[in-house]
Structure formats: structure tokens, C-alpha cells
Write a structure and sequence with these properties.
By secondary structure, the chain is mostly helical. Helix content is 39%, strand content 7%. The chain has five helices and three strands. Strands 2-1-3 form a three-stranded antiparallel β-sheet, with no helix packed on it. Helix 3 packs antiparallel against helix 4. The longest helix is centred in the first third of the chain and has 19 residues. It is globular. 27% of the residues are buried.
Length: 150
């Protein structure tokens, strides 16, 4: 059961990486040795359709590594203690549209207890409401993020 849980988390983290870096990955693939973003589009299509994304993620991962990206789509997840999902620290690059910018722990329930998650339940990314920002949307599907409570 533990291996299955780790596989699910690894997959969700990889989809989160693709979602968070969709356009930079597209540019990297188009400018790289392959000169084609079809492997990325296969991941996007699998996420959008709700289909099996594992093979497409692995193909993209290996292609990125062959093109010089040592981490690929699994790099941060495979590092000891690393995750792209809900964590106590900020992800590299600071807060972005899907990243938590001010969650509080403990105390009375309040707005910080609301979090927005992947609408397809396939990705580990998250977004906390912010009064000056409109509701974030999924970069892959374009759908509004799903509201939930911590």
C-alpha cells in the first residue's frame, strides 16, 4: 500500500510540475534537440481526458533528461524530503498563482483555511485565496480550481 501511495504522490507532483511550468517546458522542447512539443501535449491530453498519464509523464521525463534537464518532471519529488504539493515552505521562485502565500496553522478557522486545488484531482498544486487576485485556473484544463478546506 505504501508503494501505491508513493506512486500516486509522485504522479501528482509530476503533473503539478508540468502544470506550473507548462509554457517554459513547451519552449524548452521546441528549442531543444527534438524541436517538438508532442510529448508535452500527450501529458496534457491525458490529464484533460482523465486517462492514464504515467506513460506520457515518463516519456516526457526521459526526453527532458536527454535534452539536458537532469531533474526532468520527477526531479524535485525524487530528491530526499522534497515535494511539489502542500509543504511548509515556499516552492522555488516564490509565491505564484497556484502557490500558498499565507496559510496559518492553528487558531480559529478563517479565510486561510480555504484552499483551491486541481479541478481534475490529478495534481498536487494548490492556491490560497488572496483578496487582490482573481480565482486561479488550472493551466492544463483552463477550469477554475476546486475549493476545499484545510
Amino acid at each position: 500500500m505504501r508503494d501505491l501511495d508513493q506512486t500516486i504522490v509522485r504522479r501528482a507532483n509530476a503533473v503539478a510540475y508540468v502544470c506550473q511550468n507548462l509554457e517554459p517546458l513547451r519552449a524548452q522542447l521546441l528549442d531543444g534537440q527534438l524541436g517538438d512539443d508532442a510529448p508535452l501535449e500527450r501529458v496534457v491530453a491525458a490529464v484533460r481526458s482523465g486517462g492514464d498519464v504515467d506513460g506520457a509523464l515518463e516519456d516526457l521525463h526521459l526526453l527532458l533528461q536527454a535534452d539536458g534537464d537532469a531533474r526532468g518532471v520527477h526531479g524535485l519529488h525524487d530528491a530526499p524530503g522534497a515535494s511539489r504539493g502542500l509543504t511548509g515552505g515556499e516552492p522555488p521562485g516564490g509565491p505564484g498563482p497556484h502557490q500558498v502565500t499565507g496559510l496559518s496553522r492553528g487558531g480559529a478557522p478563517g479565510p486561510a483555511d480555504i484552499v483551491y486545488l486541481c479541478p481534475a484531482r490529478r495534481c498536487a498544486r494548490f492556491w490560497a485565496p488572496h483578496p487582490t487576485m482573481p480565482l486561479a485556473r488550472c493551466a492544463i484544463t483552463g477550469r477554475p480550481l476546486r475549493r476545499d478546506r484545510l
